[in-house]
Amino acid sequence: MGIQEMYGVYISGVGATVTSLFPIFLGGQLIAVFLENSGLTESIAINIVKRLGTKFIIPAVFIVSWILVFAGVNVFVIIFTVYPLACAFFKFANLPRALIPGIVLGACVSVQSLPGTNQSNNAIPTEAFGVAPTAGFAIGMTTAGFLFVANLLYLLWATKRYQKKGIGFVELEGENFEIDLDKKGLPNPLLVIIPLVVILGLMNGFGVDAALSMYVGAAVCALMFWKRYGGAGKIMDILTKAAKGSISVMNTAALVGFGTLVAAVPAYTLLSNFLDTVSGGNPYIFTFIAVAIIAACCGSASGGMQFICSTFYDKLIVQMGGIPAGVSRVVTSAALTFDSLPHNSAVVLTLDACHVTHKEGYIHVFVCTVLNTTIATIIAVVMATLGIC
Question: pTM, whole model, 2 decimals?
Answer without folding.
Answer: 0.81
